[in-house]
Amino acid sequence: MAELYHYTTTASLLGMLKDCSAEDPYLTIWATHCNYLNDRAEFLLGEELCCKAICEYEEEQCIPENERVRSIVEDSTIKEYNKKSYEVGSALPSRIHEGYPYLFSLSRAKDSLPMWGLYAKDGNGIAIVFDEEALQQEFRGQDCIYCQKDNTLPIKATIAKLYVDNIQLSKEANRLTTILILKLIYKKVSSYIKHKSFEFEQEFRVVTTESSHILFREKAGLIVPYVEQKIPVKYIKGIIVGPTADFDRMKEALSIFLINKNINVRKINIIQSEVPYRG
Question: Is this structure's pTM higher than 0.90?
Answer without folding.
Answer: yes
